[in-house]
Amino acid sequence: MFKSLGNIANLMKQAQEMKSRMGELEGKLAEIRVKGSAGGSMVEVEANGQQKVFSVRIDDSLLDDREMLEDLVTAATNDALQKAKQAAAEQMSEITGGMDMPGMEEIMKNFNPNTSGA
């Protein structure tokens, strides 16, 4: 019985540490900047680790080809968001490193595209 109480106390301590680290993680994710590109960098999209898009740069030569432009903006945005998701997974791994939290592997799958089966 006392061993179970010790395990619960340990889990509570880890949960408090995790809450503190998650706040730290949010700040770091907001600062991360990634660029996605398509069409040989004719379209570039900048996003942060929270997967918020900040800017889109489009080469002037694409302005006359709407269909290609739409395809390249979509591709560059997806590239930027994929990189943002990977950066978030790396930060999450650093923040949670060494902590044995039940369910953490499942949470990490949501951040890391390489383990989500997508």
Q: What oligomeric arrangement do these chains adopt?
A: single chain
Quote the average pLDDT: 82
The count of β-strands is 3
Unreliable residue stretches: 112-118
Q: In total, how many domains does the architecture comprise?
A: 1
Overall spatial form: rod-shaped
Structural class per helix/strand content?
alpha+beta
Order of helices and strands: HEEEHH
Q: Given the structure, what is the number of helices?
A: 3
Neighbour order of strands in the largest sheet: 1-2-3
User: What is the level-2 CATH architecture name?
Assistant: 2-Layer Sandwich
CATH superfamily, called what? Answer: Nucleoid-associated protein YbaB-like domain
Key terms:
3 strands, disordered C terminus, alpha+beta, 3 helices, single chain, rod-shaped, 15% strand, Ybab, Chain: A
Q: What's the gist of this structure?
A:
This protein is 58% helix and 15% strand. With 118 residues, it is α+β, with helices and mostly antiparallel strands. Strand 2 (43-48) and strand 3 form a beta hairpin.
Produce the secondary structure layout.
Elements: H1 2-31, E1 33-38, E2 43-48, E3 53-58, H2 66-96, H3 104-111
Antiparallel strand pairs: 1-2, 2-3
